[in-house]
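hey
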C-alpha cells in the first residue's frame, strides 16, 4: 500500500497539472490487491465535490453504481460510503475474473476519471506430495510436490528434520494461475522408513510468515531381521519356556517358521505367531531352535541354543556374574561411606575434647564410632563374600 501511494503522487500531480486549475474538481483512487475469496475496498476520493454525478464502472465498463444507486445486480459489490469526500465500494468473495481497472468517473462539464486496478492473487492450496516408485533400501526415492493453482507462482521448498532439501521446480501457466511442481531425489536406507518429509508452498497471497505444508511419511521397504528373546535365562526340567521371535521388515513378514536344528520340534511345542511355547521341558528338548522370516527383499534367521538342566542343578548362569560385581561395588561404597563418617565423628570428638572436659559424653560417641567401625568391617566381610 505504502509503495502504491508513493508512486501515485507524482502521477496525480501530473494529472492535476494537465486538467488545469480551472475546474478544481478531482477524483483520486488507489490500486488494490486482494487474495482470491477475500474482500477488496475500492475508494474514489473526491475533492471539492459539487454534487455532480459519480459513476463507478467495473473492468467491463458496466456501471456498478450510478451516483450511489446500484446499477449492476451483483450483491458482492456493496456501496459502503458516499460522502462529499469519498465513494467507497466493497467487493466480497473476490474472484480472478473481477480483476482489472475500476473506473471512478465524475460527470462535470469535462468528465474526470481515475482507474483503480484490482489485482487478485491466488494462495496455494495444501501441496500434493506423491512418490514416483516404491522406495527400497539402498535405492533412491523421488518425491514430487504439486500445487495446481497459485498466483504469483508459489515457491515450493522441501524439508526434512528442519533441514532444507534441494528440489527442482518447474511451472506452467494455466490461464491466470500457475501450476507448480517440485521434485526431490535422495538415497534411502532402512532407517529412513517412517521419516517425515515436508513440502511447503508460499506466495504473497498468504499472510507473511504463513505457508501451506504437507507432510509425507517415507515408506522404505527393507529385508527382515530376526531376534529371539527367551522368557527366562536358566531353564530346568519341568519349566515352561516361551521364545519370542522379534522380526522387523517392510513389508512385515507375515509368517514366522520355527525349527530345531535337523530334528523336528517337540510335540508339546506350540507355535503361535511370533511365540513358541515349550511346556514341561525335558532334557531331550535340548537343541538349537531357529525362527525364520522372509519378505520379497530377503530372509532372516535367528538361533537360540536351549540347554535344559536338572531341576536341582546349581547353575553358574552368565547373568549372575554382573550381579556379583554390582553387589561387590555396592558393599565397597557402603564401607567407604562408613569410613568417612567414622572419620568425621572422630574429628568432632577430638575438637570437642579440646574445649570440653573429658567426661563430656565423649565416651558415648567413641562407642558409636566403634560400633560403626564394626559395621564397616561387616560390610568388608560381605564384600569378600561377593567376590568369592
Ligand atoms: C495501478 O496499476 C496499473 C496497472 O497495473 C498501473 O499501470 C498503474 O501505474 C498503477 N498505479 C499506481 C498508482 O500504482
Ligand atoms: C448525487 O448524489 C449525491 C449524494 O447522494 C447528491 O448530493 C447529489 O445531488 C447527486 N447528484 C445528482 C446530479 O443527482
Ligand atoms: C544335520 O544333519 C547333517 C546330515 O544329516 C549333519 O551333518 C549335521 O551335523 C546336522 N546338524 C545338526 C545341527 O545336528
Ligand atoms: C542337555 O544339556 C545339558 C547341559 O549341557 C546336559 O546336561 C544334558 O545331558 C543334555 N541333554 C541332552 C538330551 O542332550
Amino acid at each position: 500500500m505504502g509503495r502504491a501511494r508513493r508512486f501515485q503522487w507524482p502521477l496525480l500531480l501530473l494529472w492535476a497539472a494537465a486538467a488545469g486549475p480551472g475546474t478544481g474538481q478531482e477524483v483520486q483512487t488507489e490500486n488494490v490487491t486482494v487474495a482470491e475469496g477475500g474482500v477488496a475496498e475500492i475508494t474514489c476520493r473526491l475533492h471539492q465535490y459539487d454534487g455532480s454525478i459519480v459513476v463507478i464502472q467495473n473492468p467491463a465498463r458496466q456501471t456498478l453504481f450510478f451516483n450511489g444507486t446500484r446499477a449492476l445486480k451483483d450483491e458482492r459489490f456493496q456501496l459502503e460510503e458516499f460522502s462529499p469526500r469519498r465513494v467507497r465500494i466493497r467487493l466480497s468473495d473476490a474472484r480472478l475474473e473481477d480483476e482489472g481497472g475500476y473506473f471512478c468517473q465524475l460527470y462535470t462539464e469535462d468528465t474526470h476519471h481515475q482507474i483503480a486496478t484490482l489485482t487478485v492473487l491466488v494462495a496455494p492450496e495444501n501441496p500434493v506430495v506423491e512418490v514416483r516408485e516404491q522406495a527400497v533400501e539402498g535405492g533412491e526415492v523421488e518425491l514430487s510436490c504439486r500445487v495446481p493453482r497459485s498466483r504469483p507462482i508459489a515457491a515450493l521448498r522441501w524439508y526434512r528434520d528442519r533441514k532444507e532439501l534441494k528440489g527442482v521446480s518447474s511451472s506452467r501457466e494455466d490461464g491466470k494461475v500457475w501450476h507448480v511442481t517440485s521434485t526431490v531425489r535422495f538415497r534411502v536406507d532402512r532407517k529412513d522408513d517412517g521419516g517425515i518429509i515436508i513440502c511447503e508452498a508460499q506466495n504473497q497471497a498468504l499472510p507473511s510468515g504463513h505457508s501451506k505444508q504437507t507432510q509425507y511419511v517415507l515408506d522404505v521397504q527393507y529385508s527382515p531381521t530376526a531376534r529371539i528373546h527367551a522368557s527366562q535365562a536358566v531353564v530346568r526340567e519341568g519349566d515352561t519356556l516361551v521364545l519370542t521371535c522379534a522380526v522387523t521388515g517392510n513389508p512385515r513378514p507375515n509368517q514366522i517358521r520355527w525349527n530345531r536344528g535337523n530334528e523336528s520340534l517337540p510335540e508339546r511345542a506350540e507355535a503361535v505367531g511370533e511365540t513358541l511355547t515349550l511346556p514341561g521341558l525335558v532334557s531331550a528338548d535340548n537343541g538349537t531352535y531357529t525362527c525364520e522370516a522372509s519378505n520379497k527383499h530377503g530372509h532372516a534367521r535367528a538361533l537360540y541354543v536351549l540347554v535344559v538342566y536338572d531341576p536341582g542343578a546349581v547353575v553358574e548362569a552368565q547373568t549372575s556374574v554382573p550381579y556379583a560385581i554390582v553387589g561387590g561395588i555396592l558393599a565397597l561404597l557402603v564401607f567407604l561411606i562408613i569410613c568417612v563418617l567414622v572419620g568425621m565423628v572422630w574429628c568432632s570428638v577430638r575438637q570437642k575434647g579440646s574445649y570440653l572436659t573429658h567426661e563430656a559424653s565423649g565416651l558415648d560417641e567413641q562407642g558409636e564410632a566403634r560400633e560403626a567401625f564394626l559395621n564397616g568391617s561387616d560390610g568388608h566381610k560381605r564384600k569378600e563374600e561377593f567376590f568369592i
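Residues 1-23, 354-388 have pLDDT under 50 and may be disordered. Residues 283-284, 286, 307-308 surround 2-acetamido-2-deoxy-beta-D-glucopyranose (ligand 4) (CB under 6 Å).
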